[in-house]
Amino acid sequence: MTPLLSHQPCSVDAPNDLLLFPSQCRHHKLPAMPAPTCSSCHAARAALRRPRSGQALCGSCFCAAFEAEVLHTVLAGRLLPPGAVVAVGASGGKDSTVLAHVLRELTPRLGITLHLVAVDEGIGGYRDAALEAVSSQAARWELPLTIVAYADLFGGWTMDAVARSTAGSGRSRSCCTFCGVLRRRALEEGARLVGATHIVTGHNADDMAETVLMNFLRGDTGRLARGGVLGSGGEGCALPRCRPLQFASQKEVVLYAHFRRLRYFSEECVYAPEAFRGHARDLLKQLEAARPSTVLDLVHSAERLALAPAARPPPPGTCSRCGALASHTLCQACALLDGLNRGLPRLAIGKGRRVLQAQPPLPGNRSQATSDPVAPQGPCTCEQSRDGVTLCRDGGGQAGATCALQSDLSATE
Ligand code: SF4
Fold first, then answer.
1. What are phi and psi of 276, to 5 degrees?
2. In this structure, are strands 56-57 and 48-49 parallel, antiparallel, or unpaired?
3. What is the position in ligand 1's atom list of the atom closest to the CA of 91?
4. pLDDT level of residue 405 (50, 70, 90 thresholds)
5. How far is the centre of ligand 1, averaged over its atoms, from the C-alpha of 329 (Å)?
6. How many helices (H) and strands (E) does the chain have?
7. pLDDT cut 90: percent of the chain above it
8. Is 0.70 topped by the overall pTM?
């Protein structure tokens, strides 16, 4: 076996392999070349080479540089003014864990108050464990924690119930579409509950690049135009929200957690494999292998994107049902919940939404946080012509009932 003469490991299949200077090659078990001296403190041995700058840094200098960059992002973008009460969207995962820790370190400099807000989507076998991680983080860091649940906010709907409902129409892969919209609403409600003036989320540069790529692939110009913005100023009645880690790569987020010895929950959601985002992530990895700057290039390209006047979405109005910002009669959350309550989840996404919005609201609609739970009812969830409008010949039955046509469609999707 050929001895490894470089300090680089022989495998690059994980971020740490790319960035850390190991003491020995983990495959050949031979001593690697000594790491260079940290280019910042010139005292300690370097532990990693930063992907963007190529700088060789020790763990402490890297963490200090990472925190300084987040501070710069917040100050330069005027994201969190002194005195702000900041609701940190906490999921127990690496991004929100790192975000909460960094902001806690920066609290004296920024003059802000932090409050963790976690959302319980009602995903059996996944979210319970993640919420335990958030609770232990809150206790360790002595930060207040509030948990808001879909079931309480949305009249009994949990993500597991949504998944069952959408799977009934052969669209189980749309779970994340529902969850993303409802989670945004739930975080807003939780932030208001704790008296927050601002919301921060842990989206990193890789998340942002995936979103930009997905919007390109879907031709969603409205979202593309919003995709590069660091944060929203709180249009309408919405609270201002921002993403202080937007320019931090996922690899560096993982490394920061590693050097600060942060414990986080790293299981994948049970519905994640169905998500379209997974395809964008795979594509991004391939692009990054060919061009390492792809992630930040995509984030910056969205920032610089200018839409022709004809392609610009109309200025948002307010939802006729809940008063939230909306570009149609109903906001996304109310439209999705309305579709679920009618037993027509498919009508709530894509072009079917227009049809749904033209219909009168259901009595006892569950799209508002204060409404009472009602049993799902409505016609069969399939559409004979598959145009999202025409009901099948068996329409009129209870939601979730499977007609013969439904079975055929499910088999082919
Ligand atoms: Fe929700 Fe999808 Fe994330 Fe699961 S993977 S928590 S369903 S957005």
1. -60, -30
2. antiparallel
3. 6
4. very low
5. 26
6. 15, 10
7. 42
8. yes
